[in-house]
Structure formats: structure tokens, C-alpha cells
Write a structure and sequence with these properties.
mainly alpha; Serine Threonine Protein Phosphatase 5, Tetratricopeptide repeat; 12 helices; 75% helix; rod-shaped
């Protein structure tokens, strides 16, 4: 006959066993789900769902898994592109530019490369500051847009890329022109001429080229280099025959001609032989 305590213990065990068994099944199923690994397309679809819901951080995590673990899959390039897009829409432009570049370098045959190049340029375009600040990002954006034009000359975004290059060049021209004007106000005319020349050499097709000619001629006039100033105005007239700045040119030309005339008279005076006045000295008596 069983001990009453032992009998009670066995009864409790029989009651608990079904619950233990059920718990083991649940844990086992959960473990199997955890072990199960989602495929590339499943991960990509999860990423796209988060992307469309503007949950960009969640989307980045899903796209990152595809990009790192399924590099040879058919959705790897899309995952890389949209990972960059998530960074772009979060205004993380430096990180976005890096992610676009990964696609360009590692998946050059992808049909998303042209968009990635354009977007990469646009990242630097978005970072381009006001003209009074450093313009490294503006120059970088121009380089990237020009690369886009070189590699994809028939793309539908070509006209927009060209428009933005012109806009950025205008910003760079403005900065150099304003630098020149600053030196003009300080009467550092040689430095001013340097910046006006930058405008004329590099940004001759912008709106700042026209006044740069006049200001360069003015700086040369202030340095009394009248012949050089006159040559600059002649180039200006040839390039802008119907300029609205004609009155400024005429006034400056008058100053130049006056300076040339004064120089001519001065040269004539210095070149004339001195009169011999020795014979005109009074004769002294014996």
C-alpha cells in the first residue's frame, strides 16, 4: 500500500503533466518560428511596407538585412536604393549620398544606377548653403550632376540636372563677385581684380559676368592702369552691345580717357628738353 504522501505527490504530477506537455509544445513552436529565417523578398516587402508608411528607420533595418545577407538576390539593388531613399527623406544627406554610392559602385548594371547618381548629386545640392558661406557642397553637387550628364545623357532628368548646375554656378559667381566688391570697398583693388577675373573666367555665362567687367575696369582705373581698363571696356561693349549698364560704362570711359589724356601730357612734359638758360644769366661788369 502506497504511502499517503507519495500517493498525493503522484496525483499532483499526473495533474500537472498535461500542462507541462502543452507548454513544451508552445515553446517548441515559438523556437521554430524564431529559427525560421525570412527570405530576401519577404524582407524586402517588409521594408517597402515600412517605407510607404514613412517608418524609415524600420525600413532601413529590413533593407539592410537584404543588402548584407542577400547580395545576389534580384531585390538587392532595390533594397540598397530604398535604404538610401530612407536616409534622403530623413534629410540625412551625407549618409544617403554614401548609400547611393554603394549602389553605383557595387551594382553598376542595375537600372537604378541613373536615379542613384541623380539623387547623390541632389544630396549635395540640398546641402549647398547661402552664397556667403563656404561652397564646397555646391562644387561637389556640380561635379556629381556633371557625372550624371556624362553617364546618362538621354535620361529624362537631364534638363533638371542642367538647370541645377546653372543655379549652383550662379551662386558661386555671386560669392566671387561679392568678394571682389568687398575688396573694392576696402580699396584693395588688386585683390578685387582677382575675384572679378574668377567670375569672368569660370562663370562667364552667369548674370554676374556683366557687372564684373565694369568693376574690373573700375579697379584698374583706380590703379591708374588706364590702357588695361580701356581694353576691358572694349571687350564689354563687344559682348554686351545693348547692355542696360551703358551709362555706367560711359561714365567710366570718360574717367579712363581723362586719365589717358593726363598721362599723355605728363609724358610730353617729361620728354621735352630743358631750355639752356646759361646764356640768359646777367653779365657782370669789369
Amino acid at each position: 500500500m502506497l504511502n499517503p504522501l507519495l500517493k498525493k505527490h503522484l496525483n499532483n504530477t499526473y495533474i500537472l503533466f498535461p500542462f507541462i506537455a502543452l507548454l513544451s509544445i508552445i515553446i517548441g513552436c515559438s523556437s521554430n518560428e524564431a529559427v525560421k529565417q525570412l527570405g530576401a523578398e519577404e524582407r524586402y516587402n517588409l521594408g517597402m511596407k515600412a517605407y510607404k508608411n514613412e517608418d524609415y528607420l524600420e525600413a532601413i533595418e529590413e533593407f539592410k538585412v537584404v543588402s548584407l545577407q542577400y547580395q545576389g538576390s534580384k531585390v538587392a539593388d532595390s533594397a540598397q536604393f530604398y535604404m538610401a531613399e530612407c536616409r534622403y527623406f530623413r534629410e540625412e544627406y551625407i549618409l544617403a549620398a554614401f548609400e547611393y554610392d554603394v549602389l553605383i559602385r557595387t551594382m553598376p548594371s542595375s537600372n537604378l544606377v541613373s536615379r542613384a547618381r541623380f539623387r547623390r548629386a541632389t544630396c549635395f545640392y540640398e546641402l549647398s548653403p547661402n552664397s556667403i558661406l563656404d561652397q564646397n557642397y555646391s562644387r561637389k553637387a556640380i561635379d556629381e550632376y556633371q557625372a550624371f550628364l556624362e553617364y546618362h545623357p538621354t535620361d529624362t532628368l537631364v534638363s533638371l540636372a542642367e538647370q541645377r548646375i546653372n543655379e549652383l554656378n550662379t551662386k558661386l559667381a555671386r560669392k566671387d563677385f561679392e568678394n571682389g566688391m568687398t575688396y573694392m570697398h576696402m580699396e584693395y583693388y588688386k585683390a578685387a581684380i582677382y575675384y572679378f577675373d574668377l567670375v569672368l573666367d569660370k562663370y562667364h555665362d552667369t548674370q554676374y559676368a556683366e557687372p564684373a567687367y565694369i568693376k574690373k575696369a573700375e579697379a584698374l582705373t583706380n590703379r591708374k592702369k588706364y590702357a588695361d581698363a580701356k581694353e576691358v571696356l572694349e571687350k564689354f561693349r563687344a559682348k554686351y552691345p545693348s547692355s542696360v549698364l551703358k551709362s555706367d560704362v560711359d561714365k567710366l570711359n570718360y574717367d579712363i580717357e581723362t586719365g589717358l589724356h593726363d598721362e599723355k601730357i605728363k609724358i610730353q612734359k617729361t620728354s621735352q628738353p630743358k631750355k639752356d638758360t646759361s646764356k640768359l644769366a646777367p653779365q657782370l661788369g669789369n
